[in-house]
Amino acid sequence: MxxxxxxxxxxxxxIAVHHPAxxxxxxxxxxxxxxxxxxxxxxxxxxxSVTSTAPKHIISQDQVLRMxxxxxxxxxHRMPGITLRxxxxxxxxxxVSVRGFGARHTxxxxxxxxxxxxxxxxxDVSRYSLDNVDNIALIVGDNDDIFIPARNAAYAAxxxxxxxxxxxxxxxxxxxxxxxxxxxxxxxxxxxxxxxxNRRLAITLSGEYLYAENxxxxxxxxxxxxxxxxxxxxxxxxxxxxxxxxxxxxxRSVLEGKVYYYDNDRQLPGIVRYYTNISNEQLHDRNAFxxxxxxxxxxxxxxxxxxxxxxxxxxxxxxxxYKGGINDATYIQREAYTSACLLFTPCQEVAVDxxxxxxxxxxxxxxxxxxxxxxxxxxxxxxxxxxxxxxTLTTRLLYSLYLNDAxxxxxxxxxxxxxxxVSLSYRLLxxxxxxxxxxxxxxxxxxxxxxxxxxxxxxxxxxxxxxDQYNVGLAYRRQFNKTCTLxxxxxxxxxxxxxxxxxxxxxxxxxxxxxxxxxxxxxVECTADITQELGHGHRLLLNAxxxxxxxxxxxxxxxxxxxxxxxxxxxxxxxxxxxxxxPWVNLTLHGHAMSSRYANNEHYAGTxxxxxxxMGITAYRSFRWHNTSFELRGDIKNLLDKQYEIVSxxxxxxRSYQLTVNVKI
Length: 665
What we know:
Strand content: over 45%
Radius of gyration: 25 Å
Shape: globular
Number of helices: 6
């Protein structure tokens, strides 16, 4: 692996020396020199996804409206290669897996700094609202923007959630007020206020509240017998608030800060059963973090970025079915994180970045078996990038060091690794936006605290999961006669996972984690975006994606479960949206579908989850009155009232509606 990186660096250096031709400056070199308030339009973002050296899929705020997207989960269903676990309703937990790697291999960043979950390693994306989001970007492999923390490169895939930026230092207040109401008691007001204090300092305050009963009906089947039920013990009561600032500290310096708080007190409905539907479980999640980003540059060829963050999260679980709090548990995790990135651009074609990160994590609980584990993590990355007229080449070497221990017990094994990666994009025709891309990335995942320390389940001897991912693809973009724009992408990939962590029974009552698993995943992803201008304010927009994926167990050839598809991994997924914009009421017809899958890796009889197809319709209209913008929107979700499950025995809602009123001053 290291040899691959050394050869790639040598190749990049040779190209830089022997091809000094002028080239378009790449985004990673230019981005530090852009002050807050400069907006990047949709067309530029989508063009960037075509020229990217690795698969990159972007959904902007405008596309959220035009594609009929109502929440984060809905947005992720529209991206190829994503497998979403959704436990149903507005309050159901939602985790993301990309290309069969599993949710723990998918990093989620919020305004450029990674979110953390040291206990389970899985980020619940349902807690992040679309109302405050400018765009969502999924990157499989390495990011073309090399001016990033080392931690952002330490995942097989990264989901970047970028919030709405400060609208500029114009000294005018900006207020957004929104109200959503919908089926099953859904109510969600949202406020956002932005004010430039002076020409250098701007602040933003935003808050959202969400309440939902989630008592939707469903049909419960038990062989030939069926009956109508309603989801019970499913109420959600959550709120989140953010405060952000942007300060132009100097002509070449920018400081950005954010304080975030989330509080969700929800009931857990549990799985549905035919003879009883009793559930009395409750979960109270709280999360607070504060983060700072400082960027400065010397006006020539050096740029510096400093990041800092402190994160605190608590989980309180109660089970009212057992007296005396037998099953109750409270967990608290903390993280302190800092990062420094130095970008050197000796010429237009070449950029080199060195990034170093440090983080400290610990976990505590009120359980008698608690060992209070903690971890020190040091990550360093060295990245070189060459951008020519037709060729873009990026190479990276990531060094990871994990130091594990526990205050009241033995610590997990320490681990260190070197992880190389290389990616390229080549413009096949000099006057056409037709690009060939190829990438390779080796990365690993350290065991979570649950996998290492959980009572009667964890093992402190675990090794990290090791992954290799290969991708080749084509991307094409063309504009015909200024009335039609076409964008197509197609990628094929193969992934290998070794030392996969799996739970096996130690005896009848105790299970433990060991490194025995091997997984091979291969697949194809295709996307298409077409925009057709019809004239006089009429326009058609088509967005579609398709994924074929085989994620197979390759652990033991003599096992009866060898070469079986991994749990909850469909072979086929697709999505589409057709939008008709006009001067009266814009209409969007949208939907997504997936094939059947199994609820476990062994494919036991009766554990097959049926495939489904679901569609909806959106109508919206925007208009201005004096200095105020209004947006009215109506959604009918699951238009055909299809009953389906994404996670076994967790039925999804049937037909429902949602109305939205948005006012901007």
